[in-house]
Specification:
This protein is of the alpha/beta class. It has helices at about 15-25, 50-55, 70-75, 135-140, 160-170, 190-200, 250-255, 295-310, 375-385, 395-400, and strands at about 5-10, 30-35, 75-80, 85-90, 95, 100-105, 105-110, 115, 130, 150-155, 175-180, 205-210, 215, 225, 230-235, 235-240, 245, 260-265, 275, 280-285, 290, 320-325, 330-335, 345-350, 355-365, 365-375. Bound molecules: flavin-adenine dinucleotide (FAD).
Length: about 400
């Protein structure tokens, strides 16, 4: 049980790092807390970086998860622009790149993930080739979004599609390529891919599926892209959205077990004593296997579970996944985990319902996930049904005449 002399050091001042320290203080932790972040900004939310912030509709300060005064008021020693270079799990000391050392009693790794980049050998280091992970990336990209320019988005996942939507709204000519046979293939059913393909094409975006990038061409700055189907297109800008990898560098160099993320038990403990992990960087047990989730909801919930367990709660963390994405006027909300689904049932609202639609994923007769487009009621009810382990018959869910709320009763 953590006491007044206990020193908790949290490495990574992002969504999960903040959630750990805020939960510790909210639950009455009276020991010392140090939160160390490599970026110069206090903990901030990343989702607007590819949405409202990139569009120029949101100020930097509104990204920040807490006002600066929060940290002093809660006796949290926030060290920004400060990177941990190594941890010694035997002597329990963290060493900064500057050489300073910080002893700890409990250490939490919330180091997040790093974007995959294109290799230099295929032009990945040309000017005008950008990724989207942090404020600095968004600030580099925003001034490049000049109407009339031609942008190539590489990767049809959520971040690529959101960035494509912003570019289209800003008046750029957008081409998006996806190597897999369809956009969103890693995360959603064909029905959801179809919905977003039609949405983007309706806004003038060219989507080319089953097409990869062979190489980028240009002298200094990118000027063209050669694609896997042999075609070549002229481009002014390339945005790479080909996924992220968990940031496990620190854990690996400390000899901590890594398995698609820092391997934790259900409590959030890593393989090293007194070292915990949460958020994008952590892989946790689920059923017979392991899972790593990249979402705000998981970063918060898992981090809070770790904080409670540091205080001795002994509560296993059971994820209740949720996610959202904003593209043009469509708000997609997702509840549950669709891995292993074997059928999808579509519910369409009436013609004047702003494109409202929901896709219900089943494994056998078990409801496992829902994608709700402009339908927050379907999302809310789906989330509650999934969390309660309840599975109404697919035909009932798909019937637009069904009052979804009534399904929660009884
Ligand atoms: C553009 C974008 C849009 C997104 N949109 C959505 C969305 O719509 N919905 C959703 O649910 N999720 C979304 N996500 C994902 C979500 O933001 C992440 O899952 C979440 O931020 C993970 O939180 P985290 O604390 O694990 O990592 P992060 O928030 O990435 O924080 C990790 C921090 O640790 C720091 N760090 C790493 N190593 C060290 C070290 N050695 N020393 C000190 N500091 C270190 C990093 O610099 C970073 O600041 C989006 C992500 C991006 C990039």
């Amino acid at each position: 049980m953590a006491g007044e002399e206990t020193h908790v050091v949290v490495v990574g001042a992002g969504q999960a790092g903040l959630a750990v320290v805020a939960r510790l203080r909210a639950d009455g932790f009276a020991g010392h807390i140090t939160l160390i972040g490599a970026e110069p900004h206090p903990p901030y939310q990343r989702p607007p970086l590819s949405k409202a912030y990139l569009l120029g509709e949101m100020d930097r300060e509104r990204l920040y998860l807490r006002p600066e005064a929060f940290y002093g008021d809660h006796a949290i020693d926030l060290r920004l622009g400060s990177e941990v270079a190594a941890i010694d799990t035997g002597t329990r000391v963290a060493t900064l790149v500057t050489g300073g050392t910080i002893p700890y009693d409990e250490l939490v790794l919330t180091t997040g993930s790093v974007p995959r980049r294109l290799p230099a050998a295929i032009g990945g280091e040309l000017d005008g080739v950008l990724v989207m992970r942090d404020v600095a990336d968004a600030d580099r990209l925003a001034p490049e979004l000049v109407p009339g320019r031609r942008v190539l988005v590489v990767g049809g996942g959520y971040i690529g599609l959101e960035a494509a939507a912003v570019c289209a709204r800003k008046g750029l000519a957008v081409t998006l390529i996806e190597m897999a046979p369809r956009i969103l293939s890693r995360v959603a059913a064909p029905e959801t891919s179809d919905y977003f393909r039609a949405l983007h094409e309706g806004m003038g975006v060219t989507i080319r599926e089953g097409v990869g990038l062979e190489r980028l061409l240009g002298e200094g700055r990118v000027a063209a892209a050669r694609l896997s189907d042999g075609s070549e297109i002229a481009v002014d800008l390339v945005l790479v959205g080909v996924g992220v990898a968990p940031d496990t560098r620190l854990a690996e160099s400390a000899g901590i077990a890594v398995e698609n993320g820092i391997r934790t038990d259900a409590m959030g403990r890593s393989s090293a004593p007194h070292v915990w992990a949460a958020g994008d960087c952590a892989s946790l047990p689920l059923g017979d296997g392991r899972i790593r989730l990249e979402s705000v909801g998981n970063a918060i919930d898992q981090a809070e579970a770790v904080a409670r367990n540091i205080m001795g709660a002994g509560e296993p963390y059971v994820p209740a996944p949720w996610f959202w994405s904003d593209q043009y006027d469509c708000k997609l909300q997702i509840a549950g985990l669709n891995t292993g689904y074997d059928s999808v049932h579509v519910r369409e609202a009436g013609p004047d319902a702003n494109g409202s639609r929901s896709h219900w994923y089943f494994r056998g007769d078990r409801l496992v996930a829902v994608d709700a487009m402009n339908d927050s009621r379907a999302y809310m009810i789906g989330k509650r049904l999934i969390e309660a382990g309840r599975s109404p018959p697919p035909s009932v869910l798909a019937d637009p005449a069904t009052d979804l709320k009534a399904l929660l009763k009884g």
